[in-house]
Task: inverse folding
């Protein structure tokens, strides 16, 4: 792994620079053709803001990876992990297409879920899935149940990242923190392929942040949020070499706890009310409102900055917990930190 550090540093810098420059270009293009997000009752921003910033994040993620192939060691690494690479590229293409279509034209919940489940099926079919469950030191093969659980986990994380993208820079700093934690875990597990992917994503988010920090000059939109969610979901269940991935709330999955918990609570609240017909309750689950944690904190403290800081600190604690659970000597401390978070 040590021989990869110099290429990884170059990858990080190149990803950040590419994302920064690409964001400036996308922002100007979005302004010219009128692709802006208008203020509204459910939204916190007060001025029309260009969207489609996710395209710049994706370019910052993907283009430098192609350049990394010029490094002989990196190229060897990729050839050993073609299965995962093809899975990420194929599923990512579907999600990017969905995000761009939704940002430009708009889609309904059924169309979104159809594409999201298709992308998740691709990842699972290529081996990115839970294999076993570990209980009291014993491992049980999950078989088909593991594949089903993996599909729902991937779709859930994608939507969790999309839901939390409701405030300037919030989704960016949350995803950046989680991706950085996944990079550290990849180093600890000698998982070189995941380290390359997460380094590229971290760099791309760093380059995008100056444009997205409050007051945001551009939003990532569904294109960016769904793509980031897909990568983080894949990273949370990726396994180095052929070792099994246990279906337990621990390890990398802990880093994603805040957006996932927020999504589950909001969906439960929207579905509540037995006096409302079932079809209406199901539709309400996917109807945007101001129930998310960032809306609640802004209402309580009157400051988007305080809300972002509070959410980031909790995310940071979850991320630190995830890293600690990847180390045998600090595993119990990691779970304790997760309980505090």
Result:
């Amino acid at each position: 792994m040590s021989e990869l550090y110099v290429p990884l540093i170059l990858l990080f810098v190149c990803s950040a620079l590419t994302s920064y420059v690409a964001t400036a270009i996308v922002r100007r293009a979005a302004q010219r053709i009128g692709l802006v997000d208008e203020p509204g009752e459910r939204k916190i921003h007060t001025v029309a803001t260009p969207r489609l910033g996710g395209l710049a994040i994706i370019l910052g993620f993907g283009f430098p990876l192609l350049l990394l192939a010029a490094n002989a060691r990196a190229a060897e690494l990729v050839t050993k992990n073609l299965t995962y690479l093809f899975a990420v590229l194929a599923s990512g293409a579907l999600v990017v297409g969905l995000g761009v279509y939704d940002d430009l034209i708009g889609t309904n919940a059924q169309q979104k879920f159809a594409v999201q489940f298709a992308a998740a099926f691709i990842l699972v079919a290529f081996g990115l899935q839970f294999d076993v469950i570990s209980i009291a030191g014993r491992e049980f093969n999950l078989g088909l149940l593991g594949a089903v659980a993996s599909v729902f986990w991937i779709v859930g994380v994608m939507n969790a990242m999309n839901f939390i993208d409701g405030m300037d820079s919030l989704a960016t700093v949350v995803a950046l923190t989680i991706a950085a934690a996944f990079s550290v875990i990849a180093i600890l597990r000698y998982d070189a392929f995941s380290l390359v992917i997460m380094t590229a994503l971290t760099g791309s988010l760093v380059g995008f942040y100056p444009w997205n920090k409050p007051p945001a000059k551009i939003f990532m939109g569904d294109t960016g949020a769904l793509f980031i969610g897909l990568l983080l979901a894949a990273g949370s269940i990726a396994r180095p070499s052929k070792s099994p991935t246990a279906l337990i709330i621990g390890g990398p999955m802990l880093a994603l706890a805040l957006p996932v918990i927020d999504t589950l609570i909001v969906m439960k609240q929207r579905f509540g009310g037995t006096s409302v017909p079932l079809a209406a309750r199901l539709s309400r689950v996917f109807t945007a409102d101001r129930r998310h944690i960032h809306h609640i904190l802004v209402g309580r403290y009157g400051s988007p900055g305080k809300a972002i800081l509070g959410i980031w600190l909790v995310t940071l604690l979850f991320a630190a917990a995830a890293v600690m659970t990847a180390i045998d000597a600090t595993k119990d401390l990691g779970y304790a930190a997760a309980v505090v978070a």
